[in-house]
Amino acid sequence: MSATENRKYDVIVWGATGFTGALVAEYLVERYGVDGDVTWAIAGRNADKLAALKKTLGSRADTLDVLTADSHDVDSLDQLTRATRVVCTTVGPYAKYGSELVAACARNGTHYCDLAGEVPWMREMIDTHSSAAEASGARIVHCCGFDSIPSDMGVYFAQREARERFGEPFVEIALLVRAIRGAASGGTVASLLGVVEAATKNRGTARVVVHPYSLNPDGERQGPDGRDQRGSEYNDIANAWTAPFVMAQINTKVVRRSNALLGFPYGREFRYSESTMTGSGLPGWLKASAVSLGLGGFMLAAAVGPLRSLLNKTVLPQPGEGPDEKAREAGFFNLLLYGKRSSGEVVRTRVTGDRDPGYGSTSKMLAEAAVCLAKDQTASAAGGFWTPASALGDSLITRLKENAGLSFEFDV
C-alpha cells in the first residue's frame, strides 16, 4: 500500500490566496466540488486571507478545510505534507519560498507539483532530494503550467502517435508558437528575474541555465542539441522565419529530461527546439528581427542590477497580480510541433489551450496534474523527481483534453 493511501486529503492547494492559487481553488470547486471523489483543502500562511478566499468560492465551498503553515517553518510543513497525498503549490519564486516544502514532501512521501520554471533551483532540488524521494515514494513533478505541460505533453503525444502509426519516433521536433494571447504572470516574471540575477552572480548557475541537458539525470547530460535560439532564424522544417521563445530555456530541458527518464523512446539522437513563428518572406524576417532585438534588450537590461530593479518597479507585473476574468477567457495559445521522420517527411501536431496561458490555462493544467498524481494509475508510480510526461503520461493527456480545455491533434 502506498504511504499516502490513508491521508486525509487527496490535494492541498498551497499558496491558495495568491492570484494563481485562487484560480486553482476556483477550478477545483467548479470541476470536483468539495465533498466528492477528490478531497482537498486550501492552505497558506494567513488565516484571514484564506477565510476571505473561501467566502469568494461560494456556498459549494462551505465545508472546505482551511490550513495554515509557513514556507520556512519545518514543523508546520511536516504537519501539512503528512495530511495529504499531493501538495499543489503556486508559491514562488520557488528558490525563495519552495525549498523547504520540497524537502518536506520528499521526507514524508508526499507527491508534489508546482509551476516552477527556475532551472538552477530545480537542478538543486533534484541533486539534493532525489534519494529521499525515491526512498519515501514521493513523486516530485516540477513545471506543471504553461511551462512546460504543452511542450512536454505535446512532444510525448506526437512521439506516441508517430511510433504507433509509423513504427518509429520522429528524429526531430521543432515547436513553433503559432499564436498566443495573454501576458506573462507576475510570478513567472519574478522567477525569470531571479534566475537572471543568480546567473549574473554565479558562473556555475549560468552554466546550468544555458546547458541544453542540465536537467537530465547524471551521466545523461549530453546529446545533439546546442543552446536555445537567441536571434532570428529561418526554420527549414516549417519554412518560416522564427524568433526566440522566452520559455524555451525551460521547456526544451524538460522535454529532454522526459526522454531520458522514459528510457529514450524518442531516441538518443533526438533533436528538439522551440521558437516563435513570425511568418515568411521579408515581413517574417522583419518581425523575427524586431522580436529578437526586443527580447535581447530586455534580457540585457535584466542582467544589470539597477536596470532590473527599474523594470521590476515600473513596467513588469508583480507576483499576485493578474488579468481580470474577461481577459483570461479571451486568451489562448496555438502551438505547432513539426516532427521530422527519418525519411525526411514532416508531420505536424497541434496543441491548443482555451484560456490565457499564464493564468487561466495554467491554473487548470496545474489542478489536473495534482488530481492525476493523487487519483490515477500513471506512467510512473515510483518515487523520485519526474517531469509531467514521465510521471503522468497518457492519464494526464486524457484529463487535459476532457477537463482543462487543451487539445492535441496529430497530422494537422
Explain this structure to me?
This protein is an alpha/beta fold. It is 47% helix and 19% strand. The protein is built from 15 helices and 14 strands. Strands 3-2-1-4-5-6-13 form a seven-stranded parallel sheet, sandwiched between helices. Strands 8-9-10-7-11-12-14 form a seven-stranded mixed sheet. Strand 8 and strand 9 form a beta hairpin. The termini are far apart.
- Termini separation comes to 43 Å
Low-confidence stretches: none
The order of strands across the largest sheet is 3-2-1-4-5-6-13
* DSSP strand count: 14
Strand content: 15-25%
- The level of helicity is 40-55%
Structural class: alpha/beta
State the shape.
globular
Major beta sheet, specifics? Answer: 7 strands, parallel
CA gyration radius, whole angstroms: 20 Å
Average pLDDT taken over every residue: 93
Number of helices: 15
Q: Could you state the order of secondary-structure elements as H and E? A: EHEHEHEHHEHEHEHHEEHEHHHEEHEHE
In short:
The chain has 412 residues and is an alpha/beta fold.
What tags apply to this protein structure?
412 residues; alpha/beta; 7-stranded parallel β-sheet; 7-stranded mixed β-sheet; 15 helices; 14 strands; globular
Strand-helix topology:
Layout: E1 9-14, H1 19-32, E2 40-44, H2 47-56, E3 65-68, H3 74-81, E4 84-89, H4 94-97, H5 99-108, E5 111-114, H6 119-136, E6 139-141, H7 149-166, E7 172-181, H8 186-201, H9 203-210, E8 233-235, E9 240-243, H10 248-261, E10 271-279, H11 281-302, H12 305-314, H13 325-330, E11 332-340, E12 346-353, H14 357-375, E13 384-386, H15 388-403, E14 406-410
Parallel strand pairs: 1-2, 1-4, 2-3, 4-5, 5-6, 6-13, 7-10
Antiparallel strand pairs: 7-11, 8-9, 9-10, 11-12, 12-14
